[in-house]
Amino acid sequence: MLHIRSCSLRIGTWNCSSRYKTTKVKEGPGLDYFITASLDKQVKKERKRLPCWLQTAIPKGKNYTKLKTDLRSLNLTTVCEEARCPNIGECWGGGDTNTATATIMLMGDECTRGCRFCSVKTSKNPGPLDPLEPYNTAKAVGSWGVHYIVLTSVDRDDISDGGASHLAECVKELKLQVPDLLVEVLAPDFRGDLDAVERLASSGMDVFAHNLETVNRLQAFVRDPRANYKQSMEVLIKAKESSPGLLTKTSLMLGLGEADEEIVETMEDLRKNSVDVVTFGQYMQPTKRHLKVKEYVTPEKFKHWEQLGMDMGFAYVASGPLVRSSYKAGEYYIKNIIDKQRGIVSDVND
Length: 350
Hints:
By secondary structure, the protein is α/β, with parallel strands linked by helices. It has 14 helices and ten strands. It has helices at residues 2-11, 18-27, 31-46, 62-73, 79-82, 88-93, 133-144, 164-177, 194-201, 219-222, 229-242, 260-272, 299-312, 331-341; strands spanning 77-78, 103-106, 110-111, 121-122, 148-153, 182-186, 207-209, 247-254, 277-282, 316-319. The strands form two sheets. The chain has an eight-stranded mixed beta sheet with strand order 1-2-5-6-7-8-9-10, sandwiched between helices. Strands 3-4 form a two-stranded parallel sheet.
C-alpha cells in the first residue's frame, strides 16, 4: 500500500504537466510488482504460525555486543548470523554460565552450494581464502576464555581440496595458542574426497561433525545436488577411521516431511557406522524463498527421539525445537565425554 500511495501522489500532482505525469507513470511500479505483492500475501497466509515454544528473546547484552565487536574487528564471520540461528542471543549473551560462545564460519561467507534450507549466500566464485584467518580465529577465541569452540565453514567446491588444508591450519593454530581448548569442526563433505576428510580429521580436533541434515528420501529435495546421504555417511566413517579417538557427530532437521520410521532408520545407520553424537532440531524457514515447514514438531516428540537415541547407544543426544548442530548447551556434555575418555575428572558445567 505504501508504494501504491506514493505513486498516486506523484501522478496526482495538480501543478504538473501531462507530459510530466506520463513520465512518472512510466517510472512507477509495473504489473509484476502487483503480482509479486499478491503472491507475497498468499505465501504469508500459507506459512504456518510459529508455536510458542519456538519464540525466542531479542539478542542483547554486554557479552553479545563485545563478541560482535571482536568478530568484526578481526574480519571473522559466524554461522550464527549467516544462518539466522534462533539461539544467537543465548549463545552470544552467555546464558546462565555467562560464557559467550559462537560458531565461527571459516573460508568466507559465500557458499558454492545452494541448499534449499540454508540462508547463507551462494556464489560460483567466492573470494580468495584469507591467509590470516587461522591466526585471527585463534586470537579471537583465545580472548573469550572459553573451553569449547565450534568451527564451521561454507562449501568451497572451487578449491582443489575443498579447503581441507585451510581448515586444518585453523585447528592447528587454535591448539597452538590455546592448548586446553576443545575444538569441534562442522565440516563440509569435500565432494566425497576422503583424502581431504582424513587431512582435516587428523589435524588435532576433538569432535568431527558433518550433518546429514535430513533422512535419505528427502536428500535431493532439501540439499544441493552435489550432496547426498551415502556421501555424507562415508565422510563420517572416514573421519572415525582417520583418528579412532575422535568423536563423530551429525545433525538432522525435523519438520521437513520425514516419517518416524525414516528417522529410526537413519539413527540405526549412524550407530552402525559408530557415530557418537546426534542432534535433532526443528527446521525453520529462514525466508519465504526457502523450503516451507511441513510440521512443527512438539517438544514431547523431541524428547522421544532423545530417549530413543540414548537407548540405542549414542554417547550424547541433543534433541529439542531450538537445538542446532552447534548449540552451546550440548558443548558441556560433549566436553565431559572427552574429559572422561582422557581420564580427566571434570564437572559437566565446568
